[in-house]
Amino acid sequence: MPGIADKFTQSAQGRLLWPGMTSFEGDIPSRGIALRYLSAVGACQGHADRPQKPLDEETPAESFLTIKGKAYIAGIYEHPTRHAPDKSTAQLHAEVAKGAIEDAGLTKADIDGYFCAGDAPGGLWPMVDYLGLKVRHMDSTETGGCSYLIHLGHAAEAIAAGKCSIALITLAGKPRTGVMPPRAAGAEVDFEAAYGATTHNAYGMCAMRHMHDYGTTSEQLAWIKVAASHHAQYNPHAMLKDVVTVEDVLNSPMISDPLHRMDCCVVSDGGGAVIVTTPEIAKSLKKPLVRLIGHGEAMKGPRGGKDLDLTYSAGVWSGPRAFEEAGVTPKDIKYASIYDSFTITVLMQIEDLGFCKKGEGGKFVADGNLISGVGKLPFNTDGGGLCSNHPVNRGGMTKIIEAVRQLRGEAHPKVQVPNCDLAVAHGTGGLLGVRHAASTCILERV
């Protein structure tokens, strides 16, 4: 039985390549990638330096340590508001929870697991009490915008372990009408705060470095906004419904060179929720069946400047982990929900997930590949964060919701992907140019 290390090949430069790759550009240490990739699947398939056990000697934990197919998404709900001056944040959480529960055909009393992040007012226990839930499992993992993608993976783990049977995940907030909570101050703040890093210039640095290393252009980045706008015109709740051109994007004001205003996402009130449950319960409900078959999560930081490279995200680790567990490749994906806080966020993640080679993202998007009905990889068919909704400045939840809509066949007919049976929902949280987390979820229509 071959070990996982046997799946790696070696590039002409001596770098290790994960399955499906033929080359790797950039300065990421190949050994670091390989070790992280090996550790992700080592629990299931054994470490590369240890001999594999015969199947008949494996323990139950070693045989079944996977979430593949063990959790289904039974309910989704995206709040229609983008401006909520008359609602509290807790009320928005309650309204999206109610919507997802009703979409699944369940009741509040059925919920026995609850997942939330830093947007929940007061934290986990006040939110559980406010919602009137009685739960036996809870999780308040906080990784910024990708928290809810990580929650989906953690909910699947909890369900597979029997810790809960019906989990609720909520996101809500009102940055347009209320004061955003301050960012958490980490150990690095004394060394970095003096230089005035903001969300915009941290992503602007990534864009500028990508342009320097790979020749990416502002025109190519603009095509990502163009694709999002083509989809948003069919979403009645989208904040920006007008179709834009590359010239419109380039003529919009410069925010942080080389990012223009139209390279940036919207700021919206609102929220969303997801119900995750067991296969048995999901099959007893009336909704089309959508299951999680692969999940990966990872973190990346500057590590004191060691091997610093702004042109890739933690998706280079979370993506392969999810695809490996799901047993599929990027070529199998019919639809992609990709976090789009900025256009450069999308470009980097498309490369990191293996939809094109590193450095070729600019050409990939400029060829129209992100536009539904036109390209190879329809993305963010609700308009995404660039045009529709980015509640609480956190886009992970809406990425799950639109992926489920596509797999159910419930997206707008003008953007619905034909025969959509396999989708990826992927996002980051934090700042790409500094430190951040990433999470990748592979979803399948049953």
List keywords for this structure.
446 residues, alpha+beta, nine-stranded mixed β-sheet, two-stranded antiparallel ribbon, 15 helices, disordered N terminus
Describe the overall structure.
Helix 1 (30-45) runs parallel beside helix 11 and helix 8 crosses helix 12. This protein has 15 helices and 13 strands. Strand 1 and strand 2 form a beta hairpin. The strands form three sheets. Strands 5-4-6-9-3-10-13-12-11 form a nine-stranded mixed sheet, with helices on both faces. A two-stranded antiparallel sheet has the order 1-2. Strands 7-8 form a two-stranded antiparallel ribbon. Helix content is 34%, strand content 16%. With 446 residues, the chain is an alpha+beta fold. The chain is globular.
Strand line-up across the major sheet: 5-4-6-9-3-10-13-12-11
Helix content: 25-40%
End-to-end Cα distance: 30 Å
Shape: globular
The helix tally amounts to 15
Beta strands, count: 13
Order of helices and strands: EEHHEHEHEHEHHHHEEEHEHEHHHHEE
Q: How much of the polypeptide forms β-strand, as a percent range?
A: 15-25%
Structural class: alpha+beta
> What does the largest sheet look like?
9 strands, mixed
Mind telling me the C-alpha Rg?
Answer: 21 Å
For the residues shown, what is the average pLDDT?
86
Q: Uncertain segments of ≥5 residues (pLDDT<50)? A: 1-8, 10-56
